Amino acid sequence: MPEIKLGIAGAAGRMGRAIHDEAAADGRFKLAGTSDRDGEAAGLFAAADLVLDFSVAGAAMTHAGLAGKTGKALLVGTTGLDEEAMAALRAAGATAPVLVAPNTSLGIGLMASFAGAAAARLGADFRVEIEDIHHAGKKDAPSGTALMLGRVISEARGMSLDDLAITSERVGDAAGKHRVSFIGALERIDLIHEVTDRLVFARGALDAGHWLAGQPPGFYAMSDFLGATKK
Length: 231
Description:
- The chain has 8 helices and 10 strands.
- It is of the alpha/beta class.
- Helix 3 (about 60-70) links the parallel strand 3 and strand 4 (about 75).
- It is globular, with a radius of gyration of 18 Å.
């Protein structure tokens, strides 16, 4: 695949800066532009082949509309998206490749797979608890990752997400830690994923974005990327 022209929405944030620095050293990409305000987004989509959006939840509607109009690939890593934003992103998938990922770590994708398999195999005799820990400045709780893990587990068990116990803690500068516990009468299983450096999210976003830029229009998840790359 030729060099991909990369646009970064939310370039002034923690993730935006990390992606910018990682992409500069990655020969797969050429930086086409950045944006931090809605007024800059149209120009960003015009210049880029792929936009990585780690801005704010309120920008998702605008970015979805631009992706749908231009056909440019869009990866949204912003969390806290409401149903209206999700509907707009799904609709954009009719004319553009769109991937929504509350967590772009490859490890958390594997954890979700393990959690779903365990939930299906262990059954209702094992109580499930999900815990997420993030830095004090993170606004959404539970995190998008915790909710994603909860959806995987609830679907595996045929139950409602609302029936799962999810707890959140916002403290210090923690990059992210998630624990899924399956608690039985005689034994307990804990799945733990802890981020030690935020670069893992930037590298995962670039890897998933590189894959996404070569896909046909559609609405994708990290599981689609992980499933394709393991073949």
